[in-house]
């Protein structure tokens, strides 16, 4: 009689990762084992348990709601863009129809206040103030020497690139909006020409979040290019 012990075979435990890898490699597994789907249960957040199929359906519904929200947001953005495009088109027509500098400036002011709904807006052009004495635009229009002391607070913006949005310094706000400075919560500064060689437009809002550094500036840049091109005609 042999006393040699028979070898014992120990089955290695199957790891969770191995199960996951297998299921990913065989996506048709549950199609071949339909009955298993009905027996598998997963813990539910509200207590009790749900089948794997019910959990999958729930996840698909959540994904659908998320996609529906994304679609809704995209539609809203598209509608807003359509409205902005129409406003830019209308501004372009008004600027084309302007016969002189006075008419051009009046068209810009009307577009800022009525077309684009700005709470406050100011057009600043660089040059000799004496050359613009015949322009009537009340508080909307300013003329300044680019190298003058009043432009000192705007030096970073003037030598930068593209529109700037957000909060502004008190000295900038007081120069631009004067008696209305206290009503300004946020501002968009839009250069006219390369590095604001012609001037710039300041659009002020009473809403502190209306203009902020993280917003898209494409629309503002296009309006600035359009206005700059029109002003250069005169």
Can you walk through the features of this model?
- By secondary structure, the protein is an alpha+beta fold.
- Helices cover 46% and strands 15% of the residues.
- It contains eight helices and seven strands.
- Strands 4-3-7-6-5 form a five-stranded mixed β-sheet, with helices on one face. It has a two-stranded antiparallel ribbon with strand order 1-2.
- α4 runs antiparallel to α5 and α4 packs parallel to α8.
- The longest helix has 46 residues, at 52-97.
From N to C, what is the helix and strand string?
HHHEEHHEEHEHEEH
Number of beta-strand segments: 7
Strand content range: 5-15%
Strand order of the largest sheet: 4-3-7-6-5
Query: What would you call the structural class?
Result: alpha+beta
- Quickly count the helices: 8
Give the overall shape.
elongated
Low-confidence stretches: none
How far from one another are the termini?
118 Å
* Major sheet size, sense and barrel closure: 5 strands, mixed
Radius of gyration: 33 Å
